[in-house]
Amino acid sequence: MHKGLFITLEGVDGVGKTTQALLLKAHLEQKGHEVLHTFEPGGTPLGGRIRELLLDPQNKELSSMTEILLYAADRAQHVHETVRPALEAGKTVICERFVDSSLAYQGYGLGLELDAIRTVNHWATGGLVPDVTIYLDADPAESLARTHRDRIAQRTLEYYARVRAGFLAMAQAEPQRFRVISAEGTQEEVASRVLEAVEGEV
Length: 202
Ligand code: TMP
Prior knowledge:
alpha/beta, Rossmann fold, about 55% helix, binds thymidine-5'-phosphate
């Protein structure tokens, strides 16, 4: 059991997770929380190097299994070095992406075994599960237009439709943890939906 509150933000590329994470952080700090904002992949110095391997468009030979394991390795280091110590110190952690991203992108998106991804990640994180997961939902065709084209973002719109459907399926399966928020509208409109969604928890 950890003392702090663990909030994750999920969504397809370009949906505005960083903006919303920073707005939520500012709001919670005003309410007196000590907040750590972090992200995956690359939330630690070692993870930054793993992120480069994962996103470099030149790494065309990277196998799907290697991809899953590199995300899990990044996550293991991030939980060990950053997330768990902050939670144990009683901080609120706002993390962009966590295990649900691996399930959505590598599981639902690439069609790889969901149970294997769950098992590897359960081991990598020591079974850490977010208290609240905010899923920012948008049509990938619109949000992708706002991204740079790294190795993952070069995938097709059909791929992203599967990723989105995966997030929605997970949200439906775990309604007590997930909050599905429409990412349509201005940053302020989305931010107020996010605040409403976490209201009962903070
Ligand atoms: P970012 O753009 O949110 O920093 O994430 C980088 C890319 O990595 C993005 O396309 C989503 C992808 N990703 C996965 O495919 N699986 C994962 O487990 C994570 C954390 C990210």
